[in-house]
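Task: complex structure prediction.
Instruction: return structure tokens for all chains below.
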Amino acid sequence: MLIRYKKTFEKIAMGLMSFMPTEKDIKKLQATIKDYETDDSMQLFLWKEEDIIGLLGVLNKEDENSFEIQHISVNPSHRHQGVGKKMVKSLKELYPDKQISANEHTAPFIEKCESC
Ligand SMILES: CC(C)(COP(=O)(O)OP(=O)(O)OC[C@H]1O[C@@H](n2cnc3c(N)ncnc32)[C@H](O)[C@@H]1OP(=O)(O)O)[C@@H](O)C(=O)NCCC(=O)NCCS
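Output:
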């Protein structure tokens, strides 16, 4: 299930976030997590099965009534099992009125989720 990020999940969130090609630099990674903690327009979700194995970060574009997916990652041991697609599907189910879009860094995968 998709759960909301909170500070107690910081380490696991940083680990998952570091799989994004844009977040390889530790300073950038820390700044990104901080942005999610402090910027009201940014929301971070984690995917929890037995453990937390995925991360999904969105920018809430109020004016467009849309969520732009900025970050998406799955623990490498759990890839190719549909977790990434399940996260996107759950986001759509949680926020049925929102349009879901991608940015240049997440589009290649999110485009595969159009039928999710
Ligand atoms: C992208 C990612 C979240 C997918 O998670 P996942 O749980 O393995 O995805 P699913 O099992 O739901 O879907 C697998 C499909 O996604 C495709 N896929 C995986 N990574 C992809 C990528 N970077 N770009 C496009 N498609 C990708 C697979 O080829 C597979 O396609 P198929 O269904 O046609 O065989 C995961 O590979 C990851 O964490 N990558 C590192 C972070 C990253 O690069 N994020 C940005 C992605 S654009």
